[in-house]
Amino acid sequence: MDTSNINASKVTTNGGIHLGEKSAPVKVIEFINLNCPFCKQWWEESAAVLDPYVADGKVERIVKLFDKEKPGLRKGNVIHHLLDYNDSVKTKEDIEYFLAQQQEWGKLEESAVAEYAMTKRSLTDQNNKTEAGRIITEASEANVTLVPSVFIGEFIFDEHITNEELTEMIETKLVRGN
User: Fold this and answer.
1) DSSP secondary structure string, 15-79?
2) Which of 24, 38, 125, 136 registers the highest number of CB atoms within 10 A of its CB?
3) What is the pTM of this model?
4) Residue 178: which pLDDT band, with cuts at 50, 70 and 90?
5) What DSSP state is assigned to residue 9?
6) If you ran DSSP here, which 8-state letter would residue 14 be given?
7) What is the pLDDT of residues 24-63, one digit of tens each?
8) What is the per-residue pLDDT across 72-112, written as a single tens digit (0 to 9) for each?
9) Burial profile 145-178: b = 16 or more Cβ within 10 angstroms, e = fewer
């Protein structure tokens, strides 16, 4: 991923879904779309590294569900608006469910996705349009165009990072204290 045009200074810890302790010294900010197969790859492969750090209070994940107008990702937008940003435990479970079942609901017509989500996970419209707009604006100002786009301080990467590289980045930030 070419990160040369991304302005990481415009990416904030504001908004999104916060997983872990706000006091955690390392912030991992993730722009993802739930119907993106590369976001699924990132989420599933990084869990082995991130989950223990989050559990230990060393990392806070800030998940920014990025509504995209690309036809293949619009179904993800539908689900984004049904997730409860205030219940991070349930929402993490919902994200994991929808990523795991991406092949199933991704084949549905866009008009059927909300009913699927409501039936399978007992979700309701959370009126996340304002938050979705903030995330879109932040991504635009930072020139984030692709999902997943992940930030740990000055480090910017996508799903192609190895777990060893991810661990090294986190450890570097823990040692530096910033």
Assistant:
1) SSEEES-TT-SEEEEEEE-TT-HHHHHHHHHHHHHHHHHHHTTSEEEEEEE----STTTHHHHHH
2) 24
3) 0.96
4) low
5) G
6) S
7) 999 999 999 999 999 999 999 999 999 999 999 999 999 9
8) 999 999 999 999 999 999 999 999 999 999 999 999 999 99
9) ebbbbbbbbebbbbbebeeeebeebbeebeeeee
Sheet containing 155-157, strands listed edge to edge, beginning at the edge strand earlier in sequence: 17-19, 59-65, 26-32, 149-152, 155-157
Q: Map 101-119 to HEC letters.
A: CHHHHCCCCHHHHHHHHHH
Tokens found for residue 136: 């879109």
Residues comprising the chain, all counted: 178
Q: Is 161 helix (H, G, I), strand (E, B) or coil?
A: coil
Could you tell me which of 96, 98, 85, 93 has the C-alpha nearest to residue 16? 85
Distance, C-alpha 40 to centroid of its chain: 10
Q: Using the structure block, give the residue that is written with the tokens 């991992």.
A: 28
